[in-house]
Records
---
Amino acid sequence: MVGVIGGGQLARMLQAPAVALGVQLSVLAESPDASAALVIPSAPVGDHTDTEAVCRFAQACDVITFDHEHVPADVLDALQLAGVDMHPSPAALVLAQDKLAMRRRLTEMEIPGPRWAAAHTLSDIDNFAALVGFPLIAKTPRGGYDGKGVRVVRRSEDLSDWLVAAERDRHTGGGPLRDGILLEELVPFDHELAVLVARSPSGQAAAWPVVETVQTDGICTDVIAPAPDLSPELAAAATHAALRIAGELGVTGVLAVEMFRVGDHPAYPSGFLVNELAMRPHNSGHWSIDGAVTSQFEQHLRAVLDLPLGDPRPVAPWTVMANVLGGDYPQVYPAYRHVMARDPGAKVHMYGKGVRPGRKIGHVTVSGADLTDVRERARHAADYLQGVITE
């Protein structure tokens, strides 16, 4: 049995390939109506911060993996002490949990990334700004996602409240700012990219095509596979970097490496900079459910069970995934009739989540030979489902 800590949409989407492979899933869900609990029969309720509940859950599983990166270190330590087989391991997972730790490790590896610093005082911020200039980017090292925990800073005083919180967290030994604030230069990028790879415990690895992600207000709205107008040389270099990260960090399962494409900027000769890491199936890889020979979810199961990995190649020249975000219409299902009748080739995936403005509640995938057509069809379907358009 594969146990998944967290009952979110990623755990939910593991169920279909698990059924096909004859693998039993169990999820430790935060509530009986969590996204994964609605489709996976074995879904005991428990909190991922509750050491006793997590360890009790793990005892019934052959291997443990994660729906998200927010399981506390003391819980992971308890699982490791109990001899639980975890993928990824706590040693790797910490680099997805802690952005400062990630920056230090990637810098040691000489992986291209933005210039960065840790800040504890106003002087630290001013010193970094003297090097890279304002505006700059500030991040909480822990707990941020979908644009949360990220600020554009135009003067050091913009972070006065975070500095107060950082001092408090340092004294208590807890909180997202206990090791300070992560500062990064504001990168003049052309596009955002994502490279998804999978790696098994025995060391086999596979990579999907590099994709372009389109962000709106810090939330991914569209993914284009493969990334348009990306030279084979740059795609190969970005993929090599992601595979190297997976190998040297000992990542097992799916790894998403989010990058900035910086073109011919003289300050960035690599052509790309690594922005974030996610050690799990990732929103930028949802296109692979319908658009690749082996989806990221099937591949993740194969990897954590140390089975031979599947073929990651795309099944069409272009696949576009458009996220469906919650809007002003709480009932999305009545919109199915229009979307399905207008475009029988569109694949609709809904996550069983309550509708809230800006929340990812599903996605639509369209594949084909004409990128302009595929992109328009995917975006129309997503916009209709979320009520942006009504005809």
---
Amino acid sequence: MLRVMILFILLIAGVAIGPLIAGHQGYVLIQTDNYNVETSVTGLVVILLVSLIVLFIVESLLRRIFRTGARTHRWFSGRKSLSARTQTKAALLKLAEGDYKQVEKLLTRNADHADQPVVNYLLAAEAAQQRGDTLHANQHLESAMEAAGADQLPVDITRVRLQLARNENHAARHGIDHLLDIAPRHPEVLRLAEQSFIRTRGWQALLDILPAMRKVQVYPEAKLTALSQQGYQGLMDQIMENEGSEGLNRWWRALDRKTRGDRQLQVALATHLIECNDHDTAQTIIVNGLKNQINENLLLLIPRLKTGDPEQLEKVLRLQIKQQGETPLLNSTMGQLLMKRGEWQAAADAFRAALKQRRDAHDYAWLADALDRLHLPEESAQIRRDGLLMTLKAPQQ
């Protein structure tokens, strides 16, 4: 810039001095409505030269002034940024101590100058919620929303988390539906969705997100299996309450074969059908479930059945005994079934066989009842004494 200015001055000087030396300065007239300005060409050039020099000096002064202002601004901004970083570190230590009031205070001070203002505001909202201060928690969320710009996902997740903490379950459910639309495989979204669906009894929605939870490995397989069972159990409760056994049967037939083959679901369905007094359908579920593999929970349901076809159940039990061998549960279940049919001697034999394999207070009681029916009071009394002694000794074992 300085070089250009020097060259420009030399050029102007040449234009001005040349005519002066030659004796021909020329004539310049500048006329306006009220003024007439008369000068020579050399004078005009000198005026322009002086004006340029003045402008150059003013421009230099202004540049120095603004440069000083920018440097001052950067100094203040850097000081605030450094202070924000220091306060954020101190807030994290207070968070570990559980001092949520100080956490909120430190995080929001100079939060706009922090490295991640959104994080500061979100953590401050969580801290305020821990103190039960809903008003400030919502204010910090609004600040985080403004600072986040287009990326609102962390803000929305935190909002739902705080709503669940305040038991605002239906509001959280609305937020979860939105989050699942924009981030269907986000681990935290899925965890919050699980909580929301369980609290609002959205069992089908819970079952719908399980494949995504399994794919991103949100929980171990055992936990996912338990959630699946909880979802199906809750769904059965809803269907039974609204549609009864007919609704349960329709829903069950609509499931795929793999799902219908789940033994735990078979137990749950049979239990619900028994509660609906649909014993025939419950027996069908139990019999089909026991054809290929023994299941203790299904066996335990057999004594609760009230059907007109006990022979089918006896046939299934004898088949299981033949395939699996005698077990205490099979013998005990057989004895209970035979008691319902009034076959007291066969029932007593089954209970004796069960007691030889393991001692059980219920089997003692049922055997005593069968012996009473067989008019064997002395043996019945002895069995009752043995069962009572076993019960008294049990806590000492």
---
Amino acid sequence: MKLDSKIPEGHISSKWTDYKDHLRLVAPNNRPKIDIIVVGTGLAGAAAAASLGEMGYNVKAFCFQDSPRRAHSIAAQGGINAAKNYQNDGDSTYRLFYDTIKGGDYRAREANVHRLAEVSGNIIDQCVAQGVPFARDYGGMLDNRSFGGTQVQRTFYAAGQTGQQLLLGAYSSLSRQIGLGRVQMYNRHEMLDIVKVDGKARGIIARNLITGELERHSAHAVIIASGGYGNVYFLSTNAMGSNVTAAWKIHKKGAYFANPCFVQIHPTCIPVHGSNQSKLTLMS
């Protein structure tokens, strides 16, 4: 069995541009005929559901919390790195790409990281359009700070609550599409299984956590944006809902699971086990 990463051919600096240039597009008048399910309404899920709704697709969004505002994305507080070169210190797409690969201990998939660096500036613009109150300098420009050992200052942030403000921005966009009728929101619903037809995901089985009823929902495509899985480890600062159940369900149906080492925890999780342990960890 071989993993097909679907990475297009070509030089790393142009492969995604070439791929996009030759994609088969869905005409705007055909989009309302296509149903898409999004499982999870954190930063990824809420942004995906809102964007797809804005493009004209019919979207069903599911979260097991009372509201998308309760997603665990709220806990991501550091900031977002983007190659906008606001500090005029020589930043570029390549430098962000290189720093991110290095920061991932050279284990990340290079083509995907380069694509992330390419769209990083657009991500900041989208967040600003959603109303995220990023910190600004005295002249009114978006401010940057150095974060994560990067070569340049490129981290966009909102005080010490970047994740919360990003989530509220994504939730606002999602709520607008719900109000327009393009997105149906299913709060307090837990995905129990994914439905495959001819090898493709065509729906989900969900439990209504209020009534206990099992529901089936069909779609032309299913997006799983169910978040991290820190609680697979004995000690974790993640919310109890970060427990890999949705990812495990789709893995059992044939989806591949890669890079389980990329899990973020806080040093407060690490028990004191000797005098050689760093003081930062002992004090946290």
